[in-house]
């Protein structure tokens, strides 16, 4: 599977699920994790292969809105995906709000 297809499918699934049915992301978070209601708008998705195991680095940028009437904030997020049993899991990710 090529990295571009993997990254685009992952980003679409992750943010759609995050925005509409966060409980479906249960495998990525723990009971004590704190997640605020929000909506994402994805502007760009960039990717590249990562190592001999078939991993993929995925860089996402866009805007996030945290509630009705709130101004959208720019964000970027990086995921390191690794293959597992015909699918991928998140090995690591970094999130940043881009102020200014």
From TrEMBL:
Annotated ranges, domain NTF2: 6-97
Main location: cytoplasm
InterPro entries named among the record's database cross-references: NTF2 (IPR045875), NTF2-like_dom_sf (IPR032710), NTF2_dom (IPR002075), Nuclear_transport_factor_2_euk (IPR018222)
GO cellular component: a single term: nucleus
Cell compartment(s), UniProt: Cytoplasm; Nucleus
Annotated signal peptide: none
GO biological process entries: mRNA transport; nucleocytoplasmic transport; protein transport
Superkingdom to which the source organism belongs: Eukaryota
Alphabetic keyword roster: Cytoplasm, Nucleus, Protein transport, Transport
Keyword Cell wall biogenesis/degradation applies: no
One Pfam assignment: NTF2
Keyword presence, Oxidoreductase: no
Function comment: Has a role in nuclear-cytoplasmic transport of proteins and mRNAs.
Protein name (record): NTF2 domain-containing protein
Organism listed in the record: Triticum turgidum subsp. durum
